[in-house]
Amino acid sequence: xxxxxxxxxxxxxxVLFGVTILTFVLIHMIPINPAQxxxxxxxxxxxxxxxxxxxxxxxxxxxxxxQYVSWLGKAIHLDFGKSYVSQDPVFDEITxxxxxxxxxxxAAFGWLILLSLPLGFLSALFKDSLFxxxxxxxxxxxASIPGFxxxxxxxxxxxxxLDILPIMGKGSWQHLILPSLTLASNYIAAYARILRAGVxxxxxxxxxxxxxxxxxxxxxxxxKHALKNALLPVVNAFGxxxxxxxxxxxxxxxxxxxxxxxRLITSSIFNRDYPMIQGYVLLMAIVFVLSNLLADxxxxxxxxxxxxxxxxxxx
Length: 315
Prior knowledge:
Number of strands: 0
CATH class of the largest domain: Mainly Alpha
């Protein structure tokens, strides 16, 4: 396991290096000059003299490669520069908002596990029953409804009509219910279908027949054998979805006025706050990479054949 983990960590180095290059280059491909964006955000009159001075101050008058090396050296030390709007360090603003977004994502992930796994497993267990048909309708509708529209529907029902849940902001645990459920809705439907298909596929495998022939109880056959193997693609997809949830909470945070990274990056894009955008994109890339690594580790714990096969290929 240690060798597998070290190998996976080493393989992440070129990925992260490539992410830094893309992050830096894509920002500089935007037609608006960073110096002009900075002066506009700070409400500084744009003249040739002031523009030249700001370009020199920000270092954007140097060659692109030299700018990248300087930016990368600072980014390694978590120095992403200062926000054009607030003049505060980018890292401080991101770390101030990140816990709120992480809390929202973890709550949505809780809904995902709590609802999708039982729904998918029971649909496979009672295939073609009324429960299975109803669950398929639910997953179809859940996968089709846009998140922002569902958010407004939930607000209309639970906050305005029934008046039992708060609408906006961050406060008690009740403020988490509507935005987290909205964020998780599409993923619940997708993973319920993935798990159902996985369980049904495994139930037709020879090892299930052998387990039944050995006289094992149906609970053990379904739970220990069919479900365990069907969880592998779901766990791998969880790793990707966690990053998507974290980065995709922008719309949900705007709808529910949740004080997280979504609202921060939305205002940064409108204000062309390049250092903030760079810091956010790099953070999301790191989260994606780490969440996929964690999913791979969990997959090897569920099925050790994954790392054994990897070691055999390497040998």
